[in-house]
Design goal:
Strands 1-2-3-4 form a four-stranded parallel β-sheet, covered by helices on one side. α3 links the parallel β2 and β3. The protein has a single domain, classed as Aldolase class I (TIM Barrel, Alpha-Beta Barrel). It is of the alpha/beta class. It is built from five helices and four strands.
């Protein structure tokens, strides 16, 4: 993972690089490549806090997976930089309507 980040960084220095990680080992590996962002996906709250300390501002942190509006207030104070909430799209209630034009 860190090799891929380094190669991309050498190829396109102008890009912000974000790496999605699913466990602590992947965090350690990704940080060796010096990414701009880490996306922590589906981390339980206890582990999330521990991983934020491990990252220690070496990269910006985005979290996703199981995040809802109720959890945001608690999580946002933990030192993260961004939150992805799937509930904004997959839980949206839509309505069925049409618009017809006549001359």
């Amino acid at each position: 993972m860190s090799d891929a980040v380094r190669k991309l960084r050498n190829y396109r220095r102008d890009l912000q690089i974000e790496v999605e990680v699913e466990n602590q080992q992947q965090i350690a590996d990704a940080l060796q490549g010096d990414p701009d962002w880490l996306l922590l996906d589906n981390f339980p709250s206890r582990l999330l806090r521990k991983c934020i300390k491990i990252i220690d501002k070496k990269a910006k942190i985005e979290i996703s997976g199981g995040i809802n509006i109720k959890k945001i207030k608690k999580i946002i104070r933990s030192g993260i930089d961004a939150v992805s909430i799937g509930a904004l799209t997959h839980s949206f209630k839509s309505i069925d309507f049409s618009l017809e034009f006549q001359e």
